[in-house]
């Protein structure tokens, strides 16, 4: 009952009975994965050299994330060419473990993913998710063999990452006044995020930061209005849905700001990838700005809208100088102008846009909203909690998603710059998701279906098979505390706030 479904699983009679003490060994390079397995089996199980044997080892050959798991009544052997494969095998062992934690069935599993990058984007700008939730979410992503967590850290409604050289980004940009007059805010310290990165690295999950620009920056402009196009206007942090028309300027100070923030973020996150947004950028402020029109003229651009790709190109070049790759939403690719060739395109509008980007020579992350947006409503029932008011995304819809549909090639960006699909990503925006319970309701069980689509691609079994496995899998998620609590506790005056009590800072104590 494994999710995502493995490439090959052979069942045999018998079970491996887990003793009170673990005879767990690891070959060179496999020690970390063995420690992870021991952690999941329980810290109260001492390690010993006696009894049934569990052995993890690195063995050359096979795809980078592949693994082979062989369980016999007296021995468990897990091998892989790289540590990533061993970690995936550890997650398979977690799922195969009997509910009482005493045994594994005798099986042979041979497995590997269809795509090298499989992730979830979580919007923490609209509502700040507790650190405890993020740490648990990393474990849950690893359980489903997802290896990327993209944190949407900035937007019109809030700035959530500490930049030491720009304290007002969090002191001012980290707070907003809701329409009802209440105050909401908070952010993650660099120590918070560094600890999360370390936790994720141990589980094979890469944290990708997303810093929106040149649009979706109203929170930054509330803190530093001189970075915009009308510095004399004093702006508040955006406190409603929709897109603020206020965007970064294209003068040198705005460009320096972008580079400064990206350098600071790159110091904090070791990921090779940094997402620079690029979507939903209305250009009316540039059209009205003499400085922007002058910049366009000096660059020989006959349309100020071309400044959009030019701006993102400068940020791409800066990231390249830091040894990083820029990722941008696919709107940036379709607007006038073109991004630098090395930019990875995240295709959110429609899968066909991703297909066309591949045809133009791009590396693409497939994220079409009608298959991957987990903030959409799951049902049309009267008890469905608030969600996106216009869209519906069922469990079957997510499972039907094939990121390689039409024969698109899968490409490992660590090995090649050839055009193709490098990954798939689900998204959870939080405009309508203010509580942990609501987050968990939106995630499950659809994240399970997405994980199977991203791991198995066109080779996955049908939906009926998935539903049969899901029934057992939800029991595991319930035991892990991953499912939403009983009842619709995510709405109404008694809703549990996403912000943890210790992060509910007052304006007087914001300078942590």
UniProtKB/TrEMBL annotation:
<dbReference type="InterPro" id="IPR015882">
    <property type="entry name" value="HEX_bac_N"/>
</dbReference>
<dbReference type="Pfam" id="PF00728">
    <property type="entry name" value="Glyco_hydro_20"/>
</dbReference>
<keyword id="KW-0326">Glycosidase</keyword>
<keyword id="KW-0378">Hydrolase</keyword>
<dbReference type="InterPro" id="IPR017853">
    <property type="entry name" value="GH"/>
</dbReference>
<dbReference type="InterPro" id="IPR025705">
    <property type="entry name" value="Beta_hexosaminidase_sua/sub"/>
</dbReference>
<comment type="similarity">
    <text>Belongs to the glycosyl hydrolase 20 family.</text>
</comment>
<feature type="domain" description="Beta-hexosaminidase bacterial type N-terminal">
    <location>
        <begin position="2"/>
        <end position="112"/>
    </location>
</feature>
<dbReference type="InterPro" id="IPR015883">
    <property type="entry name" value="Glyco_hydro_20_cat"/>
</dbReference>
<dbReference type="Pfam" id="PF02838">
    <property type="entry name" value="Glyco_hydro_20b"/>
</dbReference>
<protein>
    <recommendedName>
        <fullName>beta-N-acetylhexosaminidase</fullName>
        <ecNumber>3.2.1.52</ecNumber>
    </recommendedName>
</protein>
<dbReference type="InterPro" id="IPR029018">
    <property type="entry name" value="Hex-like_dom2"/>
</dbReference>
<feature type="domain" description="Glycoside hydrolase family 20 catalytic">
    <location>
        <begin position="118"/>
        <end position="457"/>
    </location>
</feature>
């Amino acid at each position: 009952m494994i999710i995502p479904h493995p490439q090959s699983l052979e069942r045999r009679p018998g079970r491996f009975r887990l003793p009170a003490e673990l005879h767990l060994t690891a070959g060179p390079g496999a020690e970390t994965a063995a420690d992870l397995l021991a952690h999941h089996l329980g810290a109260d199980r001492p390690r010993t050299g006696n009894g049934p044997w569990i052995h993890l080892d690195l063995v050359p050959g096979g795809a980078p994330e592949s693994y082979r798991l062989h369980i016999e009544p007296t021995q468990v052997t897990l091998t892989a060419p790289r540590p990533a494969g061993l970690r995936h095998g550890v997650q398979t062992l977690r799922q195969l473990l009997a509910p009482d934690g005493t045994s594994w069935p005798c099986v042979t599993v041979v497995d590997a993913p269809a795509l090298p990058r499989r992730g979830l984007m979580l919007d923490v700008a609209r509502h700040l998710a507790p650190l405890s939730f993020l740490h648990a979410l990393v474990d849950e992503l690893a359980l489903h063999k997802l290896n990327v967590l993209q944190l949407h850290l900035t937007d019109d409604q809030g700035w959530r990452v500490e930049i030491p050289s720009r304290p007002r980004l969090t002191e001012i940009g980290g707070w907003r006044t809701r329409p009802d007059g209440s105050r909401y805010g908070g952010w993650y310290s660099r120590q918070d995020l560094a600890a999360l990165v370390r936790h994720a690295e141990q589980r094979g999950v890469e944290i990708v930061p997303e810093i929106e620009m040149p649009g979706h920056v109203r929170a930054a402009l509330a803190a530093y209005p001189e970075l915009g196009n009308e510095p004399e206007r004093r702006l508040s942090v955006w406190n409603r849905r929709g897109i603020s028309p206020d965007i970064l300027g294209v003068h040198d100070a705005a460009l320096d700001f972008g580079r400064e923030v990206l350098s600071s973020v790159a110091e904090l996150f070791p990921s090779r990838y940094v997402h620079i947004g690029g979507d939903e950028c209305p250009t009316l402020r540039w059209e009205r700005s003499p400085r922007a029109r002058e910049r366009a003229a000096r660059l020989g651009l006959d349309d100020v809208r071309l400044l959009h790709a030019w701006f993102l190109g400068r940020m791409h070049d800066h990231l390249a100088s830091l040894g990083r790759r820029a990722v941008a939403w696919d709107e940036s690719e379709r607007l006038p102008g073109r991004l630098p060739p090395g930019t990875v395109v995240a295709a959110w509008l429609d899968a066909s846009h991703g297909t066309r980007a591949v045809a133009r020579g791009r590396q693409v992350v497939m994220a079409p909203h009608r298959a991957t947006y987990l903030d959409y409503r799951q049902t049309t029932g009267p008890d469905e909690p608030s969600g996106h008011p216009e869209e519906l995304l069922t469990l079957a819809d997510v499972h039907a998603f094939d990121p390689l549909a039409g024969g698109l090639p899968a490409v490992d960006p660590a090995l090649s710059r050839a055009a193709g699909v490098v990954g798939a990503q689900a998204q959870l925006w939080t405009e309508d998701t203010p509580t942990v319970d609501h987050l968990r309701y939106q995630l499950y069980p659809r994240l399970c279906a997405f994980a199977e689509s991203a791991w198995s691609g066109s080779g996955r079994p049908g939906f009926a098979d998935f539903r049969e496995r899901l029934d057992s899998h939800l029991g595991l998620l319930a035991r892990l505390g991953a499912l939403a609590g009983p009842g619709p506790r995510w709405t109404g005056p008694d809703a549990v706030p996403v912000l943890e009590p210790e992060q509910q800072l007052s304006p007087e104590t914001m300078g942590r």
